[in-house]
Amino acid sequence: MYYALDAIRRRPGRSAITALGIGLAVGLVVILLAVSAGIQTSATTLADASGVDLIAASANTTITTGSVPPIAHAHELASSVPAADPNVVVASPWLVSEPVFGNASLWAAANASHVPRGWSPTGAGAVGWIPSDNTGIQIPTISNGTGFTFPGDPHYANGSFDGPFTHEIVLDQGLAAVLGVGVGDLVWVAAAGPVGPSALAGWYANATAFRVVGISGPFFLIPSALLSFFYLSELQSIFGEGSPSTDYASILLIHLTDPTTASTDQVTIEAAFPTLTVITLAEVLGAVQQVVNLYRTFGTLIGIIGIVVAALFATTVLQMSVDDRSRELALLRAVGYTRARVGSLVGQEGVLLSLLGLGVGLPIAYVGAHALNSYLLGLIPGLPVGFSFVSFDLAVIFSGVALVLAIGLLASILPAARAMTLPVAEELRAP
Question: What residues contact residue 196 under an 8 Å CB cut-off, 6+ apart?
Answer without folding.
Answer: none
